[in-house]
Write the structure tokens for this entry.
Amino acid sequence: MTGSHTQVRTRFAPSPTGFLHIGGARTALYAWAFARHHGGTFILRIEDTDVERSTPEAVQAILDGMRWLGLQPDEGPFYQMRRMDRYREVIAQMLQAGTAYRCWCSREELDAMRAAQEARGEKPRYDGRWRPEAGRTLPQPPSGVAPVIRFRNPRDGVVAWDDLVKGPIEIANAELDDLIIARSDGTPTYNFCVVVDDWDMRISHVIRGDDHVNNTPRQINILAALGATLPRYGHVPMIHGPDGQKLSKRHGAVSVMQYQADGYLPEAVINYLARLGWSHGDAEVFSREQFVAWFDGAHISRSPARFDFDKLRWLNNHHIKATEDAALAAEVAPRLRDHGIADPDASGVDLAAVCGLLKERCGTLEELAESAMMFFLAPHGISDALQAALSAPAVGALRDFVAAAESVPWNREALAGLIRQSVTAHGLKMPQFGLPARLLLFGRPQTPALEAVLSLLPREEAIRRLRAGLAPA
Ligand code: GLU
């Protein structure tokens, strides 16, 4: 290893082939939080060299997802496709230095090589026939064939690194081929671009999914050949679905933006993803700031995490409860519009207060919007349940209530007094009044305390709704 980095610089390096999924978001979060924890720099790099599969829409989806989660990069986005000249430059330098070489093997030769090795029961690998060695004469390059460029991987010894997550890992160089770093058309290959970028961007810590563990020894060898300061690597295990299989579309929402649509708060998703494969004592509900303060790269689990939708909902409820009512109202208003309430402000209902009252039980903003709907949409028709609940004494009590409601101060306390009075005067038990009142007012049998919901419905509207369901005296 050549020295070590003094500045913490991390990166998130997605390939833009689809939306930002939950696994990618967690990788981004860990890299971001690690940089924040150390007062370092978080870099976004778009690995778009797979031109067939990369799309501008996917780039946008990644940027949107990161913005929604609040994981803004300090540098970037950098696009690999815009760095081709740089990769070519480094390849030229490596050819010059002898750490890379041209290989003229044709597809047919490679196939024959593989077949022969397999027939001998050996692991298929490039046999190094174009690899320059001291005292060795190489074949004459065939004419009219464009060569690939291979990295001259060390033959002996081991590549070892102390993985932040997995601990010490060691691979014998004998296991590694001379990797192709540029194709015959001159385009650099994936592992090579990653190496040049990590080097140029002075990445100190590579935090990524453990599907990349196999790339790491190759990348380390190339970095070492370039004389680069090596980053530290941390490979985070995959996320599995509740059934233990690799997380996929089959398990429901895997795009981060789907969680926004479903009514999850970014703070809750951050909290959830943070805990998905990492722990800090028994802390479950915490803020982004707390996570940053705690996340030093230790305590990342070595085994795959299991996605648990119920836990995410539970956390979301906690974060909804901790959110200011006005901020919730701002999130809920557009959802009410989606439900057909053109102008929630025009109704005279204090949406923030409604959110404050209802948030206790809501797992998502969408549920909050759905339960807030009862303030904006009067029930229509008389259901069987209402019919059954409207006993003669209940009707009498409700009529008394309506009559007095015209003049009672429209607040919880006064309304509670009036409810009690109407109930007692007609010899009822509370539910015998509460049930028909709720059905008349909100079309549902259950709500928070009647005086609380009533006080948030404008007086005129409450009286109108009660009268609409009570036959005239
Ligand atoms: N582009 C790779 C991916 O999307 C990540 C490469 C890396 O982090 O080194 O999986």
Q: What stands out?
A: Residues 85-182 form a domain with the Glutamyl-tRNA Synthetase; domain 3 fold (CATH 3.90.800.10). The chain has a mean pLDDT of 95. Residues 13-15, 47, 194, 208, 212 surround glutamic acid (CB under 6 Å). The first helix runs from residue 22 to 37.
